[in-house]
Amino acid sequence: MSAGPDEPPLLPLLRRLIAEQGPIGVAAYMALALGHPRHGYYMTRDPFGARGDFTTAPEISQLFGECLAIWCAMSWGVMQRPLPVRLVEIGPGRGTLMADLMRTLDRIAPELARGAAIHLVETSTVLRRKQQAALGGRRASWHDALMRIPIGPMLLVANEFFDALPIRQFVRAGAGWRERLVDWDEAAQRLVFRAGPELPGAVPPALAAAPEGSIYETSAVAAALAGEIGTRLAAAPGAALIVDYGRGAPAAGDTLAAIRGRKKDADPLAAPGEADLAAHVDFAALAAALEQSGARCWGPITQRGLLTALGIEARLAALLPCASPQQAVQLESGARRLIAPERMGTLFLALAATSPGLRAPPAFETPDPALSRLFR
Ligand code: SAH
Known about the structure:
Blueprint (H helix, E strand, L loop, with lengths): L9 H12 L2 E2 H10 L5 H4 L12 H4 L1 H17 L6 E6 L5 H13 L1 H6 E6 L3 H10 L5 E4 L10 E6 L8 E6 L2 E10 L4 E9 L16 E4 L1 H16 L2 E10 L9 E4 L2 E3 L10 E3 L2 E2 H10 L3 E7 H7 L2 H8 L5 H15 L4 H4 E7 L14 H6 L2
Parallel strand pairs: 2-3, 2-5, 3-4, 5-10, 10-14
Antiparallel strand pairs: 1-7, 6-7, 6-9, 7-8, 10-16, 11-12, 11-13, 15-16
Helix pairs in contact: 5-6, 9-10, 12-13
C-alpha cells in the first residue's frame, strides 16, 4: 500500500494496521501521529515560531523563562539548597525556556546555576539539535525518558508537554460508555471515529448521567509519568512545576484537537503526522498520581496567578526603560498574552509538586481566588 500524491505518509501505515488488527484506540492513533520514528509530527519538524503551527509561552516572551528561574531558585531554597542538583525539563521544544531560565539563574542564583546539571527529556532528534543550539556552550544531557535519569535532588519543569501525551476517549452511547476508536472508512476513503464495545466502569460515577454523545478522556501515559515524577520527589529532595492548558476537575468534553498553521483542523483524523495533536490536561488526575507515589501537590493555580506572584509585572517594568520602542511593544504584548484573564492567563494552569515535608513552593502559598471562580 503506498501513499497517494497528497496523502500523509502515515495514512497507508494506519490503514494497514487497522486492516490487520481492527479499529485502534485514540491513544494509539495519537502516539503514532506524534511519535512515529519516521513520520511522527514531532520527529520530522520544528513546529514552533512565527511560521510554525503553534507558539508557546517561552516563545512568546522571555519573561516566562525569567519567572520560572525565580521559581526554581526559590524552590531550591525550600529544598535547603542541595548541591549538586539536577535541573530537568521534559519536552523542551526549541530549548528557549531552558536557555532563558539558565541565563536568569546565572544572574540571580549563580551558585545554583554553577551547581545544576541540565537534563533534557526529548524524543525528537530535530528538536534535540535546536535545544543544543539554544543552550550555546552549556553542558546538558539528553534522555528518551525521565526514567533514564538517576534519582537525586531535582528541580523539574514541563511546559506544554503533558497535552501531547496520548489519551483514551470514551463516548456515551445508549445506556453505557464505549471506547472511541479510529477506523478506516473504505467508501469515504478516510479515517473515522467509531464506538467500540461497551466498557462498564470506564468513567467516574459522577458522569454516569452525561448526555448521549458525551466524551470522557483519560491518559494512562500522563498518569504514569506523573507517578514517576512523584516517586523521584518521594526519594530525594525536589520540586516540580507543570504548566499546561487543561482542567482542574474531571469533566466530560472532547478536547482532542489538531493544530496546523495556527488553526484548528476541523477533523483531528484528517492529517496524521502533519498536524499537532493535543488534548486538555486533567490536572486532578496528575495530582492524584503524584500524591499516590508519595509527593505533595500544590495548586493548580492559573498561569496568571503563577507569573504575577513571581513578579512578571516588576520584571517587565525593569526591562522597559532599556528596550527599543519596538522591543517595548513586544515585551508588553507578550506579558499581556501570558497573563490576560481571557487569554493564556486562565486557560493555562500550573501544578506544583514537592517532596513530602517541604513548605509550599513560591506562588503556591495561598489558594488562587481566580481558580475557584473558574471552576465554580
Ligand atoms: N516545552 C516547550 C515545547 C512543548 S511541545 C515549549 O514550551 O515551547 C512538546 C515537546 O515535547 C516537544 O519538544 C516534543 O518533541 C516533546 N515530546 C513529545 N512527546 C514526547 C515524549 N513522549 N517524550 C519526550 N518528549 C516528548
